[in-house]
Specification:
730 residues; mainly alpha; Rossmann fold; Serine Threonine Protein Phosphatase 5, Tetratricopeptide repeat; five-stranded parallel sheet; two-stranded antiparallel ribbon; 30 helices; 69% helix
């Protein structure tokens, strides 16, 4: 069981904030910090950062994409509050990331500005101040400017504490030590000297081994001129030794942070391979050479030496392409070549060249597809295809082409299904399969395809339920099942299946209560209980059971009052609290208490209006703010004021740039137009909603009041029935 931060101090030594385009850097930093052993002479000393520990564990790194809303998730906010320091991986990618900026702002609002450290991996600090070089900026605005007493960014500049991992500056090894010295509040020079002293004896042996291997390699290479057959045999031996240099030896050198020797070994191997001909040698030797070059590139990619990494991968690609072309039926060769092309694509990605990244991924996909006829049942090939499709989808998504991204995501889903069918006990494959379904469900909902959304969410629900049944003590998996159950319930209710929607939301509420019994102090689980109780209350109200709806609101309001008091800077909790207040106002209106409804709605708008002004494109805030304005208009006796509120609602929706087919948004547009007496303009929207199968009770009740015919879409209902019938829960 986890204990609260208040009882035991910060839970995390550091919080790593980064753009997911810098994921390899984040993975390296996370592993480096948690595997670092503090010199024994320092352990136990007290500094301004506290008592120096033996290990820097744990370090928080969010491994999943953040939610689609602009608010930081409860998980991230809680981790920020429980972190002793923050490390920001700075690059032009992170400098334009709204999430990195929000995380830095949130940490500064907790009065921890002096515990923020930067790791520069690309770009240039403060380049936004230089004419024509704005695209090189690596610091987000929240790092470059101070935060005022009101929690908002000011115009007063500040200079972040930074370590520079770029070539020609601190370098990767020294940058890591600088970050550690900041986390521990000890001098960098002392830390580095003690590190060197501790590693001298280990490095002496490793360095000697490296030199011996290099001498043997060179000697074997020279002996190649003696005789052809002897040369082939000795080349194979030499390249086997080089593979050791680039494998186990590289790993050991990396563990002790001797990147200088590591790079020397890699450069020696690269020179050796470039000096050899690519002809008149065995295919096996060429394959070893390509594999070794790929390893060199991987090390350089991990170091952030992108041009050098590209050089290695391109050299490996020439060899692997020749091998693959010479044996079209050899699946292993095609997989090896495709993997190298994928590395080239990833290098382009990190260099910011999305066009070339996509071209490389497509080339890798083509290579694999040509191997399919000869390897129908090769699971490794299917896995590589799934990963390539996933990479292509990510590139398209990064370019804002969401519709095009759905095709490779769908392919990833189908391949993952085959993999899970072949190895059903592989939990990670199954969990990723569920996530693929959920992502496709979200895309479908945003384009108004409710039938597909329900089908994808139901598929994810089935997978998460089965995984949870495998291990009932896995609370993380239980939480996954709870969340998808609530998502599915809300979506089913949008199709008119209120009973099924209430059933799923009721189960989500019970699962949240079950989790809270395990740890009553877990704020995420409290948030889920409050949110799902409110959403279940809405369906109860719309179904005509007002007393049950009001009863559900009591714990929901109580929890959000406590959460927002605990962390007023948590914008996600603030928005959800406003949504709960809006449901309370709707219940007051249903009970005939117009004055109470107006007061409650205005209270919600005092939260939502500033959020909307700050983030006018955020879907969740737009839906909540528009709903609040329309609710207030419906209980306002002043006709001009009510009209103004409806016009404000329409204006807020006009600012939405993507996902225009979202039926929730279309329903609010129709409600706004009908409230303004613009029925002819609302009619096409109503027809679009009917075609999509949208049948939320709020809209149905409104259309009945306006005497607009809105019968059940029988064809759509058949589609929903077919979609849900495929879902199986254990």
């Amino acid at each position: 069981m986890e204990h609260s931060a208040a009882a035991s101090g910060p839970r995390y030594r550091a919080f790593i904030s980064y753009s997911h385009q810098d994921q390899l850097w984040a993975q390296w930093l996370h592993k480096s910090l948690e595997s670092y052993r503090v010199p024994s002479r320092l352990v136990g000393q007290t500094t301004a950062a506290g008592v120096i520990p033996a290990r820097l564990i744990p370090v928080f790194r969010d491994r999943d994409e953040l939610p689609s809303a602009t608010d930081l998730s409860g998980k991230v906010n809680e981790a920020l509050a429980q972190s002793a320091a923050m490390i920001v991986i700075c690059s032009p990618r992170s400098a334009t990331s709204r999430w990195v900026n929000e995380e830095v702002l949130a940490f500064k609002r907790m009065a921890h500005a002096n515990r923020i450290f930067c790791l520069i991996v690309d770009g240039e600090p403060n380049a936004s101040d230089l004419p024509g070089r704005q695209a090189e900026e690596c610091f987000v605005p929240a790092l470059r400017f101070q935060v005022g007493a009101d929690g908002q960014r000011t115009r007063e500049r500040t200079e972040p504490i930074a370590a520079d991992a770029r070539a020609g500056n601190d370098g990767k090894a020294n940058a890591k030590l600088k970050l550690i010295s900041g986390l521990l509040d000890v001098g960098f020079d002392a830390l580095k000297q003690r590190e060197l002293q501790r590693r001298n004896r280990r490095m002496a042996a490793i360095t000697a081994l490296a030199l011996v291997v290099m001498v043997v390699t060179t000697a074997l290479a020279i002996s190649a001129v003696v005789a052809r057959h002897a040369a082939e045999r000795r080349q194979k031996q030499a390249e086997t030794l080089v593979n050791f240099m680039l494998g186990d030896l590289n790993d050991k050198l990396a563990q002790v942070s001797r990147l200088d020797i590591l790079e020397a070994v890699d450069n020696q191997a690269m020179s050796y391979f470039q000096s050899l001909p690519t002809t008149d040698v065995t295919d096996e030797a060429l394959a070893q050479r390509a594999k070794a070059l790929e390893k060199i590139g991987s090390v350089r990619l991990d170091q952030g030496h992108l041009p050098a990494a590209m050089e290695s991968f391109q050299a490996a690609s020439k060899l692997s392409a020749a091998l693959a072309d010479s044996a079209p039926a050899d699946t292993a060769r095609r997989i090896a070549h495709a993997r190298i092309l994928a590395f080239i694509g990833t290098t382009h990605w990190y260099q910011g060249d999305l066009d070339r990244a996509q071209q490389s991924y497509v080339s890798a996909q083509t290579v694999l597809q040509r191997a399919e006829p000869n390897a129908v049942n090769d699971l490794e090939l299917k896995f590589e295809l799934a990963m390539i499709d996933n990479n292509i989808g990510h590139v398209l998504e990064a370019r804002g082409r969401l519709d095009e991204a759905s095709a490779p995501y769908q392919s990833t889903l189908e391949l993952s299904q085959k993999l899970v069918a072949a190895k059903p006990d592989k939990t990670t494959w199954a969990a990723q399969l569920g996530g693929a379904h959920n992502n496709l469900g979200k895309l479908a909902l945003l384009r108004g395809d409710l039938a597909t959304a329900v089908a994808e969410y139901a598929a994810d629900d089935s997978i998460e339920s089965k995984l949870s049944a495998r291990d009932s003590k896995d609370n993380g998996q239980l939480e996954n099942m709870m969340r998808v159950r609530a998502i599915l319930g809300r979506t089913l209710a949008l199709t008119g299946d209120v009973e099924a929607g209430m059933g799923d939301l009721r189960q989500a509420v019970e699962l949240a209560k079950q989790l809270i019994k395990v740890d009553p102090n877990q704020s995420n689980w409290q948030e889920y209980l409050a949110l799902y109780s409110s959403q279940l209350g809405r369906l109860r109200r719309l179904a005509g059971d007002l007393p049950a709806a009001q009863e559900l609101m009591v714990p929901s309001l109580s929890i959000y009052l406590a959460l927002t008091k605990q962390d007023p800077a948590n914008a996600g909790w603030q928005r959800e609290f406003a949504e709960v207040q809006l449901e309370q106002a709707a219940q007051s209106r249903a009970a005939g208490h117009a004055d109470a409804s107006r007061m409650q709605t205005r209270g919600a708008l005092t939260i939502l209006d500033p959020l909307l002004a700050k983030q006018p494109d955020d879907r969740a805030i737009v839906l909540a703010a528009v709903g609040a304005k329309l609710l207030l208009a419906s209980v306002t006796e002043d006709a001009p004021a009510a009209k103004q509120l409806c016009n404000e609602a329409l204006k807020a929706m006009q600012g939405v740039n993507s996902g225009g087919g979202d039926p929730r948004l279309l329903a609010l547009k129709a409600e706004s137009l009908l409230a303004l007496g613009r029925k002819p303009e609302a009619q096409p929207i109503v027809e679009q909603l009917w075609n999509s199968g949208y049948r939320d009770l709020e809209l149905v009740t409104l259309l009945q009041h306006e005497h607009i015919d809105y019968p059940t879409n029988a064809v759509f209902q058949q589609q929903i029935q077919a979609a849900t019938s495929k879902s199986v829960r254990p």
